[in-house]
Specification:
This protein is an alpha+beta fold and 513 residues long. It contains 15 helices and 19 strands. The protein binds adenosine-5'-triphosphate. One of its GO terms (biological process) is actin filament organization. InterPro entries: Kinesin_motor_dom_sf, Myosin_head_motor_dom-like, Myosin_S1_N, P-loop_NTPase, SH3_Myosin.
Length: 513
């Protein structure tokens, strides 16, 4: 995964706490290694298992087109000359910047990243970029102490870290009065979501330090903006659940425990909301973001956070009704059903088991290490922190519940033998109508015999069971948890639109289209 500012453990501590090696040092051992390196022609040889094996050239054959290389196990291997790449001198071992390597080859880069990773150094610069290798376990490198160590320091002063990139962006913004962008890219499971959260954690912490002694950078109601009000139009929506990390701040675990203002906390707490509605377990990632996002944080001229906006794109709505057996739907469905909140479940006419719902039961329901009940609590805390009233929250969960109920609508072919569909069990459609506030007759008619335009006339068209099933799936996609449609949040101001009204309109529009 790489982060670019359009801009491990001890390895991330400021230099001196842990020497990351690199090109420093002139010990006898290093001198010996350099002399040994100079005595032979060291190369990398491609290997199916290891990627690349180190070796040295014994001799060249066929006018240099083939080289015989001695490998670590003592064997010799003939390799086409174009397949080998030169090793970098020992002084570049653990180099903090890939761009410094004398021989910039795939083998050299892999070796450098691997050596660093094995020592807990997950971050490495590559010119302007920062490369992060996913450690798949928590490292003590995101604490308040580390934030303080990176704050206002030059990149060269500390070991590579995502905080250094965030700090550079912050300083460029304040010094040059220019917008800064961080691009986070990588394949699924690479760590984009986690590192994005670390960036926000860092910016929130640093911004909180800039705030007056009140402890909050700004009260949400009284933003002091450097830009026009129009530039502050926002729509907070989601965030990925730092299932394991940042969402839990402030925590007692030493990670991000500093006192943050309300606005900073609201920005951080967007994560569990966004992840609940937009993330799902996939075969590659237990907490995969099923959407792209653009996070914008607005600062005052003094570096306090004034507001935030998260846009999301291309939410994989089809996951609601269709996914591989080895994957789950969006977290929120399981969190709600496993909330243990009997009152809420009864209001929403739900049982507490994913196995009772057609849209959930055909694929995976449990994820190792993921406790939906605990995540539910984090979601409710986040919704409270961001400022949604109990009524507004109930409206969100009505949408979630109505999708589950729509999936359970049972359809059959008409008894007359015609292909026309009929509702087999009216209980589920009654539940849907109750939750969405749609008249039952109207929804049934719209599903089974919608009015369609034929020329200038409107006529009722009977649908087959297959057509109705397709229609209910499309209906779910229309009303699926896309809170961006419903949330508008800016500099602490957030309002929920008439969700129910929207849902009904969306539902009827979908059915009558
Ligand atoms: N810096 C990190 N420290 C600890 N764990 C990490 C770190 N980065 C990633 N992980 C682990 O890897 C998992 C996958 O990371 P993440 O969700 O950030 O990937 P992603 O690139 O956003 O994937 P997707 O594109 O599927 O959303 C996380 O849930 C977390 O367990």
């Amino acid at each position: 995964m790489s982060v670019r500012n359009a801009s491990a453990t001890l390895a991330a501590l400021p230099r001196g706490s842990a020497d990351s090696g690199g090109a420093s040092g002139s010990s006898a051992a290093e001198a010996g290694a350099a002399a040994e390196f100079a005595s032979k022609k060291y190369v990398w040889v491609p290997d199916k298992e290891a990627g690349y094996l180190p070796g040295w050239v014994v001799r060249e054959e066929q006018n240099g087109e083939v080289v015989v290389v001695a490998l670590p196990d003592g064997s010799h291997q003939s390799v086409p000359a174009f397949d080998i790449s030169k090793q970098n001198p020992p002084r570049f071992e653990l180099s903090e910047n890939i761009a410094d390597l004398t021989f910039l080859s795939e083998a050299g880069v892999s070796h450098c990243l691997r050596q660093r990773y094995q020592r807990g150094m997950i971050y490495t610069y590559s010119g302007l970029f920062l490369v992060a290798v996913n450690p798949y376990h928590q490292l003590p490198i995101y604490t308040d102490a580390i934030v303080a160590a990176y704050k206002g320091r030059r990149r060269e002063d500390n070991a590579p870290h995502v905080f250094a990139v965030a700090d550079e962006a912050m300083r460029n913004m304040l010094d040059n009065r220019e917008n800064q962008s961080l691009l986070v890219t990588g394949e699924s499971g690479a760590g984009k979501t986690e590192n994005t959260k670390k960036v926000i954690q860092y910016l929130a912490a640093v911004a909180a330090d800039m705030a007056p002694a009140t402890g909050s950078s700004l009260t949400p109601e009284a933003p002091s903006l450097t830009r026009s009000a129009s530039s502050m139009r926002n729509g907070l929506s989601k965030a990925g659940s730092s299932r394991y990390t940042m969402d839990k701040m402030p925590s007692s675990e030493g990670e991000g425990t500093k006192q943050l203002g309300l606005l900073e906390r609201q920005i951080l707490q967007a994560n569990p909301i966004l992840e609940a509605f937009g993330n799902a377990q996939t075969i590659r990632n237990n907490n995969s973001s099923r959407f792209g996002k653009f996070v914008r944080i607005e600062f005052t001229s003094t570096g306090c956070i004034a507001g935030a906006n998260i846009d999301w794109y291309l939410l994989e709505k089809s996951r609601v009704h269709n996914r591989s057996e080895a994957e789950r739907s969006f977290h929120v469905f399981y969190q709600l059903l496993r909330s243990g909140d009997r009152d809420l479940l009864s209001k929403l006419l739900l049982t507490g088991s994913p196995g009772d719902y057609a849209y959930l039961k055909s694929s995976r329901q449990n994820v190792e290490g993921l406790d939906d009940g605990v995540e539910w609590k984090a979601l409710r805390t986040a919704l409270d922190t961001v400022g949604f009233s109990p009524e507004e929250q109930l409206n969100f969960f009505r949408v979630v519940a109505s999708i589950l109920q729509i999936g359970n609508i049972q359809l059959a072919e008409d008894r007359s033998g015609a292909e026309q569909a009929r509702i087999d069990n009216s209980a589920h459609i009654e539940k849907v109508c109750h939750l969405l506030g749609v008249p039952e007759q109207e929804l049934t008619k719209a599903l089974l015999r919608p009015r369609v335009k034929a020329g200038r006339e409107w006529v009722s068209q009977s649908r087959t069971r297959k057509q109705v099933l397709e229609e209910t799936a499309a209906l779910c996609k229309t009303i699926s948890p896309d809170e961006q449609k419903y949330f508008h949040w800016s500099a602490g101001h957030r309002r929920l639109r008439d969700l129910r009204g929207q849902l009904i309109r969306a539902a009827l529009h979908q059915l009558h289209k």
